[in-house]
Design brief:
CATH class: Alpha Beta
Number of strands: 7
CATH architecture: 3-Layer(aba) Sandwich
CATH topology: Rossmann fold
Number of domains: 1
Number of helices: 4
Largest sheet: 7 strands, mixed
Structural class: alpha/beta
Radius of gyration: 13 Å
Length: 128
């Protein structure tokens, strides 16, 4: 299940919907509006294999890695968010939940960085 943080704008969520990417939104579908960062992790733990997609750098934290969810920090301009979400979710290395769970990701123009608990950061380039 893809979970959009409330910091992803409605126009970007609408693009994802048009592209057929399914998601649930914090504040609209899950939790309450203005949910604090520290309340998001317990919410994720109640969901089945969620991937949180956020623009909040605070979630790119190795100590937050957990086998029950994935965290994805989109380090891109807000108007590029949907494009990079689609690019990430279609990447053959991370297409399935099982390939994402337990990792904390940073998505940016040059590629993908990710960490697991107590492991070094892995950096990969985008596949053309």
């Amino acid at each position: 299940m893809n979970v959009l943080d409330e910091n992803i704008t409605r126009d970007q969520a609408d693009l994802l919907s048009r592209w057929g990417i399914r998601f649930r939104s914090i504040s609209l579908d899950l939790g309450a509006q203005g949910l604090a960062d520290e309340e998001i992790i317990p919410l994720l733990l109640r969901l089945k294999k969620p991937t949180l997609l956020t623009r909040d750098v605070d979630f790119f934290d190795q100590t937050l890695a957990h086998n029950s969810y994935a965290l994805v920090w989109l380090d891109v301009d807000r108007n590029e968010t949907a494009f990079f979400i689609r690019r990430f979710l279609r990447d053959r290395r991370f297409r399935r939940n099982a390939q994402r769970l337990g990792k904390v990701f940073r998505i940016h123009h040059h590629g993908i960085e990710y960490v697991r608990k107590n492991e070094p950061t892995t950096r990969v380039s985008w596949i053309s």
